[in-house]
Design goal:
Rossmann fold, GMP Synthetase, Chain A, domain 3, 2 domains, globular, binds adenosine monophosphate, ATP binding, propionate-CoA ligase activity, AMP-dep_synth/lig_dom
């Protein structure tokens, strides 16, 4: 092996001398009681990291910084929606989190209970997350852009004791009322939470439900000086669940542990993001997504950094807003998504040039493929390293990246980099399960178990589904499938080529086409529908729906179809949220299927993208695809 201090040796050691490697990384966080065993993999694919250890995420993110940096900024809240800017030092954050913890306890929340958080990007959302892990409760944040139907299925699955929510969010100056969506979701769910803590921002009037809804401000006033110590929990104690879409309509609750997650994030701050204590981290994501969990809340705070929580659009009041924050708060590490950069690219680059960005060390981009023109544009404009990194809700932190904190290495446009330490990444033949060793050969990106610390422990309440979904898809071997296609070049750099399943990626947000199909099918006039992801210049992909009507006579009536398209979009908005709304709903006489009745989604997608749909010998009715093809011209 070459350089013993280099990345290759570092990665190699993380696999071949796994326990010693992670025991060292574990020193980056505080332990109330040290662990006895680094990794228990006696029952694969279930990995139990740092068994015997007692720790607490909130302690590591907040309390332990009170000694060295009590007055340093911890949370910087900026809302261009409500024109609010407020900073919290570690000491102030500590106080607010204890107050929120006391409020939750007063609502009956105990260790192991679930608390669902349905909130806009406001400080109280961060307090609620940190308060939960402080008392050993398990939070489940649901993205504020999701509507009642999506929310209901998550309430049903998580069965929370309490919910923390707010009157409204705001997007582009438009108030989005949360309370009616929440009330409807609770009505739809068979599980009813005992209590709802409502943060009233004064954006939208709402009616409190007697005996269930409590007012955050009123409760907070009762506990101003409260002390709520951290509950020391097992390293393997779940810290949160976060729902993500898959191939079925039922979302999966990705369950994360406590100790492994703390260690993984602390190590990633050092080796990948290179953020130092006292600096400022700015991730433009939302707490409803995994990036928000790992790199708005926990990662930066565990690393002793200030973190910016931003509510608003990247172009309001103008396209310079993010860069103005970089200048003002001396941001050293920034994390965003390619979609956001593509939005900014439409504006004059003087919006970047007018700010002093000397504090910025690098811009990290993740969540969807980073196309070369976008990468090149932002790299030229910023004059800073652009670091693509690839990961998933399931893993919680990067699988592929350039670990510049270990050894500086060049990025290659179009590639998120190499396998990160801890991940034994393989490319496998999807039919035979055979490992593909050659360069530039396409295979399924898979990870040999155990998954490193910080990755999902299981699917909440469904171990069997965890094994079946993630560890049984490659024939003949138990490996973790990412469900992404990839190739690797001769230097070990990977290139991600898209999903192997029916998951689509719209503006960096992952959506299951089945969920959208189920929603559209609930319209009384729709008999059947197929939803596919189609390449889009700005959003990466958009959802396109092709529906068959119960009354086919309507097909000739353009005005009626247009009206129906509007109704279907509204239905998806109401049930799932605007993120899931298809770009178009087209009406067809019949959908392309195999003779055995399987929908040919991939063929539809290929036709929509002007590609060859491939082998269609099993297709039942060739006219069905022709109809869709005709719609494209
Ligand atoms: P999510 O769990 O919502 O973060 O979505 C994860 C999926 O997004 C991955 O399985 C990939 O399909 C895609 N993805 C995430 N990051 C990247 C990246 N850097 N390059 C290409 N695809 C990515």
């Amino acid at each position: 092996m070459g350089n013993p201090q280099g990345f290759e040796a570092f990665h190699q050691r993380s696999i071949t001398d796994r326990d010693a490697f992670w025991a060292e990384q574990a020193q980056l966080v505080d332990w109330h009681r040290p662990f006895d065993r680094v990794c228990n993999y006696d029952n694969p694919p279930f990995a139990r990291w740092f068994e015997g250890g007692l720790t607490n995420l909130c302690h590591n993110a907040v309390d332990r910084h009170l000694r060295d940096r009590p007055d340093q900024n911890a949370l910087i809240f900026v809302s261009t929606e409500t024109d609010t800017e407020k900073t919290y030092s570690f000491r102030e954050l500590h106080t607010e989190v204890q107050r929120m913890a006391a409020i939750l306890k007063a609502q009956g929340v105990k260790k192991g209970d679930r608390v669902l958080i349905y909130m806009p990007m406001i400080p109280e959302a961060a307090f609620a997350m940190l308060a939960c892990v402080r008392i050993g409760a398990i939070h489940s944040v649901v993205f504020g852009g999701f509507a009642s139907h999506s929310l209901a299925s998550r309430i049903e699955d998580a069965s929370p004791v309490a919910i923390v929510s707010a009157d409204a969010g705001s997007r582009g100056g438009k108030v989005v009322e949360y309370k009616p969506l929440l009330d409807e979701a609770i009505r739809l769910s068979s599980h009813k939470p005992g209590k709802v803590v409502m943060v009233n921002r004064g954006l939208a009037a709402f009616t409190a439900v007697e005996g269930r809804d409590v007012d955050y401000a009123t409760e907070r006033a009762k506990v101003m000086d409260v002390v709520v110590p951290c509950e020391w929990v097992d390293a393997t104690h779940p810290s949160y669940t976060l729902y993500t879409s898959g191939t079925t309509g039922k979302p999966k609750g990705v369950q994360r542990d406590t100790g492994g997650y703390a260690v993984a994030l602390a190590a990633s701050m050092k080796h990948i993001y290179m953020g130092e204590p006292g600096e400022t981290y700015f991730s433009t994501s939302d707490i409803g997504w995994v990036v928000g969990h790992s790199y708005i809340i926990y990662g930066p705070l565990i690393g002793g950094m200030a973190t910016i929580m931003y509510e608003g659009l990247p172009i309001r009041p103008d396209a310079g807003i993010w860069w103005s924050l970089v200048e003002k708060y001396k941001v050293s590490v920034m994390f965003s998504a390619p979609t956001a950069v593509r939005v900014l690219k439409k504006y004059d680059s003087s919006f970047i040039k007018r700010y002093d960005l000397s504090s910025l060390k690098a811009l990290f981009l993740a969540g969807e493929p980073l196309d070369e023109p976008t990468a090149k544009w932002i790299s030229d404009e910023l004059g800073k390293p652009i670091v693509d990194n690839y990961w998933q809700t399931e893993t919680g932190w990067p699988i592929l990246a350039i670990c510049n904190g270990v050894e500086k290495a060049p990025s290659k446009f179009g590639s998120p980099g190499k396998a990160v330490y801890g991940y034994n990444v393989k490319l496998l033949d999807d039919q035979t399960g055979e490992e593909l060793h050659g360069s530039d050969v396409k295979g399924v990106v898979a990870v040999e178990g155990p998954l490193p610390p910080g990755c999902m422990q299981t699917i909440w309440g469904d171990d069997a589904r965890f094994v079946k979904t993630y560890w049984s898809s490659v024939p003949g071997r138990q490996v973790y499938s990412t469900f992404d296609w990839g190739i690797r070049d001769k230097d070990g750099y990977y290139f991600i080529l898209g999903r192997t399943d029916d998951v689509i990626n719209v503006a960096g947000h992952r959506l299951g086409t089945r969920e959208i199909e189920e929603s559209i099918s609930s319209h009384p006039k729709i008999a059947e529908v197929a939803v596919v992801g189609v390449a889009d210049q700005l959003k990466g992909q958009v959802a396109m729906a092709f529906a068959v009507l119960k009354d086919t006579a309507l097909l000739g009536d353009e005005a009626a179809l247009l009206k129906l398209e509007g109704e279907v979009m509204k239905l998806v908005d109401e049930q799932l949220g605007a993120v899931a709304r298809p770009a178009r709903v087209r009406f067809v006489g019949v959908l392309p299927k195999t003779r055995s009745g399987k929908l040919l989604r991939r063929a539809i997608q290929a036709v929509c993208e002007g590609r060859d749909p491939g082998d269609l010998t099993t297709m039942d009715d060739p006219a069905a695809l022709q109809q869709i093809r005709d719609m494209q011209s």
